[in-house]
Amino acid sequence: VEDQRARWERKRSRTAKELLETEHKYLEQLDLVVTYFVTILKAKGTLKPAVLETVFGPLESIYSASHVLSFHLERGNLGPGLESFCQNLDLYGHYAENLEQANKTLKEQLRKNKSFRRFKKLQESRPQFQGRELEDLLPLPLQRLHQYKHFFRDLLENTSPDSAEHLKLASMIPPV
Fold it and tell me: What are the residue boundaries of the DH domain, all occurrences included (predicted)?
């Protein structure tokens, strides 16, 4: 029994570490969109607020939720981190429902709005983007949500069934 618990704990620690490492990479990529597109576009007014909302939706809120999760993971507070994250799952649902329309609106703006087209090209030419385009970055939250499902399942499988965290993890997997 002790050997099994030790194996669970090692696997659980590896999974939590991998979750944190990939969360940092995910945050770096989201930061590109939030910093170089959403924030600047809001300030410049290149896109109307309604268009901006359609293209980027709740991306800033998703970014904030991931920051909170990362903060908790860095401190080893998996339970509270996952709990706060799950309170924000509806943001991902809203984002997913809107992604098709966001892509249509983005294409339309690129066709009709010359200043936005130039702005997008300029931002994507920054070295931080490493050749990635906005269209490559917009689906990231949905891809990450799929990854969360696997991480949470792995954490659940390697958490002692009689712990409070096991119950939390078990209740989170269906919504994700």
Answer: 11-176
